[in-house]
Amino acid sequence: MSNGATNHGAGGEPHQQASGDEQVLTTNHGVPVSDNQNSLKSGRRGPTLLEDFVLREKIFHFDHERIPERIVHARGSGAHGFFEATADISELSKAAVFKKGEKTEVFVRFSTVAGGAGSVDTPRDVRGFAVKFYTTEGNWDLVGNNIPVFFIQDAIKFPDLVHAVKMEADRAYPQAGSAHDTFWDWASLMPESTHMLMWAMSDRTLPRSFRMMEGFGVHTFKLVNADGHASFVKLHWKPRLGLQSTIWDEALKLQAADNDYQRRDLWEAIDTGAFPQWDLGIQVFDQAFAEAQPYDVLDATKLIPEEDVPVRIVGTLTLNRNPDNFFAETEQVAFLPTNIVPGIDFTNDPLLQGRLFSYLDTQNSRLGTTNFHQIPINAPRCPFGNFQRDGKMQTQVPKGRANYEPNSLAAHGEEGGPRESRDRGFRTVTAPSGSDEQGEKLRVRAELFADHYSQARLFYRSQTPAEQAHIASSFVFELSKVGLLDQVPPRMVANLRNVDEDLARRVADGLGIDLPEKAPAAREPVDLPSSGALSIHKNMKETLDGRAVGILFAEGSDASTLDSLVAAVEAEGGKAVLVSPKVNGAPLSDGSKRKADGQLAGTPSQLFDAVAVVVSEDGCAALLKEAAAVQFVMDAFGHLKAIGASAEAQPLLDKAGVQKDEGVTTPDGSFVSAAKRRFYDREPAIRMLA
Ligand code: HDD
């Protein structure tokens, strides 16, 4: 320890020094640091000296801590886990990752699309669902979304889409939302986006949790077996917890309650051992099937109804470890649709083909080096090596002279390096199952790509009435936010008339505009049989697994009611969260005290899937004077949740405008079963939907 005042902390107290066996703080070059509190000055009150390499290195490094955020999907949350292949599909694919019983390490990153890295978790937005499989034959990245179709058919439109949806160029708002002029100006001029818009305006873009949403590879890919035979495939992730979304008002309020709602949900689930799981399903088909469809399977704005090609489950994804470091892993992970492995191949989908260029390119500007594959989160877990050399941030130290190929260095006893392998190496399918057409060089789209509305109609007509009302209302909300461009809402409604006349009328009514002329369709839409798989409501699970129940209590609450409710919720796999005006809790009826998990003002009911109110008469009287308590109940009711309330809580329910229905129960077993669902039937009575 050196002498004098320079070794003292800001408060003037001597700073604790490392004892012999503690790790010593050093500079990046290994020089031990004696004082991490004070810069080197000329005299006690003099200027700081340029020679202070400890200060300069620390500030220099700090100044460069941020890297460019992703142009899209900037806000994301990641987790480690594994994929286990559970079915033998060797007749379809030779990929090692699909060998029955094989466990492959994965890293998954979920994201929103439009907002910046510091934006909120719950805007109305598509969610990214990107999975990196570290297979024994190299990394396979399945870079998908929670929606099976996309806004555009050709990658050349991607910059326009993204410019239009992100904050407007001059005013830099709105953040993380599509409800503004430029997005709808663009979308209303792009009929091919209509199918995706139907999904985007549905509650699919308001997932309750990453754990409760589906994932999709979107494009048609190929599976290739050991004989080189290729089949077409669509890839699906099916959440074990079932589908669950919030509703719009709830999502808006969630933004206020917790910016990190979904990130926290994922982290806490993994942290507490409730490992999220998805099954991987495949839809496999051949060229004959493809040719018989009224849509083109190479068109990413189209899906293949599960009723036509059932989803076959081939494995399970389990997320069981949180990142050790957000930046090193979640931020630096680089997903590349070009990362495929023997046994899987691309198709000529023009959106996919453009992506094959974009992602590799973006990593160079984002991570600053062509050696981004050496960052631990990106590096393959299998051995890898070639003759690519040098570049910024090279961390490998290849020995010897072999940096070219062919070479005959081995004949001389030197290391000759790796060689290509005809049998193990990746081979592009040369004879695709069917014709990936080639011919003249043309800037065109295939004929069936021109049908922009049939599947949008299929999607809308496959929804429950409650879901249809949400879609119509979302269009009204979003188009109502179009401020300056009067021509946009009618143009959008004119497109919607091709989807469904009733939808168009509801949106026009909601906007208060006349129904415009129907937009001419490039190809007349056709009616397709409806598909139950497209509805969230038909694919929800009545369960408390993964769900949280908020229990409001106050001074004098009945101890045994409270304790048995907590036990009953937990017995069903739910998370019981105690909420009280004071976080330190309150004395209960029997004199004992329970600590709250959350203080009422900061723990509103939108954070929960269902709520209970367990209060005494006096406790209730006190809560009547607390706006947060009234709001707690009012929002739970408005967000269509179960409410379990003791008789003493009735004045609070009355003040909150709660009307009795099957979701409003006593705080006991009946509440625990009601808490497993939402009460969408309640909505028309309490909200003006379009
Ligand atoms: Fe993309 C990131 C998903 C079309 C260009 N995309 C990105 C991520 C996901 C997707 C999940 C975030 C990955 C992560 O967590 O790091 N993108 C999709 C899907 C698409 C799609 C499902 C259509 C089916 N994307 C698409 C096109 C282009 C891009 C057509 C460009 C032509 N996407 C990018 C990008 C990003 C990206 C700019 C930003 C950061 C990154 O790649 O690594 O290159």
Rg calculated over all Cα atoms: 29 Å
User: How many strand elements?
Assistant: 18
Helical stretch tally: 19
CATH hierarchy class name of the largest domain: Mainly Beta
Q: What oligomeric state best describes the polypeptide chains here? A: single chain
Terminal-residue CA separation: 73 Å
Overall morphology = globular
CATH topology call of the largest domain: Catalase HpII,  Chain A, domain 1
Label the CATH architecture of the largest domain: Beta Barrel
Ligand list? CIS-heme D hydroxychlorin gamma-spirolactone
Into which percentage range does the β-strand content fall? 5-15%
Class from secondary-structure proportions: alpha/beta
**Helix fraction?**
25-40%
What is the overall pLDDT average?
95
In total, the number of domains comes to 4
Q: Strand count, sense and closure of the main sheet?
A: 10 strands, antiparallel
Q: Low-confidence parts lasting 5 or more residues at pLDDT below 50? A: 1-15
Family: Belongs to the catalase family. HPII subfamily.
Cofactor: heme
EC number: 1.11.1.6
Organism: Sphingomonas olei
Topology diagram in text:
Blueprint: H1 53-63, E1 76-85, E2 103-112, E3 127-135, E4 138-145, H2 158-165, H3 181-188, H4 194-200, E5 215-216, E6 221-224, E7 230-239, H5 248-257, H6 261-271, E8 277-285, H7 287-292, E9 312-321, H8 326-331, E10 344-345, H9 350-367, H10 454-461, H11 465-480, H12 488-499, H13 501-511, E11 548-553, H14 559-571, E12 575-580, E13 586-587, E14 593-594, E15 598-599, E16 610-614, H15 617-623, H16 627-638, E17 642-645, H17 650-655, E18 664-665, H18 669-674, H19 683-686
Parallel strand pairs: 11-12, 11-16, 12-15, 16-17, 17-18
Antiparallel strand pairs: 1-2, 1-9, 2-3, 3-4, 5-7, 6-7, 6-10, 7-8, 8-9, 13-14
Helix pairs in contact: 2-3, 3-12, 4-10, 11-13, 12-13
Family: Belongs to the catalase family. HPII subfamily.
Domain Catalase core: 26-413
Protein name: Catalase
